[in-house]
Design a protein that fits this description.
Layout (H helix, E strand, L loop, with lengths): L3 E7 L2 E7 L2 H6 L8 E3 L4 E3 L9 E8 L1 E8 L5 E8 L1 E7 L5 E5 L2 E7 L5 E5 L2 E6 L9 E13 L5 E12 H5 L1
Antiparallel strand pairs: 1-2, 3-6, 4-5, 5-8, 6-7, 7-10, 8-9, 10-11, 11-13, 12-13, 13-14
Length: 174
Amino acid sequence: MRLRRLAASAAAGALAILAVPAAASASVAASPGGWRPYHTAPWTDAPGAVCSFGVAATIVYQHEQFRTLARYPNGDPRLQEFRGPLVVRYTNTSTGASAVRSLSGYGWFHYGAQSSIRAFVASHIGVTVPVGNAGFPAGEWVISGRSEVIVNSAGTISIRLIHATAEDLCRTLG
């Protein structure tokens, strides 16, 4: 599972935050239903945005799925469930050093008011935390175990390790 970039509106205007898969909410039918495929796209972090160096993430293998369990009256997803394998290669774009990590897992994502998100994860998740975040240190994180990831309406990311470990790939690849 991977928390992805998503444009969200805030009272002060639009801002970029790290959030749950936007494509999942756009590609599901209006009524709750069965499991649907979900595909994580590769991504790149610019030097200094997350790590002191650039990070390129490429998908090695994936077979993720999601389903919408509850919706708001306007049809937007309120609660979604994600599962399945996702394996990613992270590469330091300056040195070429790389590491392959499993982000395979199972989790529930609750979309709250004003673009907030609360994710409960039972296995693995990748979270990109930008420099300047107040809720958790910047890094390209791989969380393994039970955790909670919260993105508030201002875009601040907080991670609570319930019974989990956290690897900062900025350190691993640095």
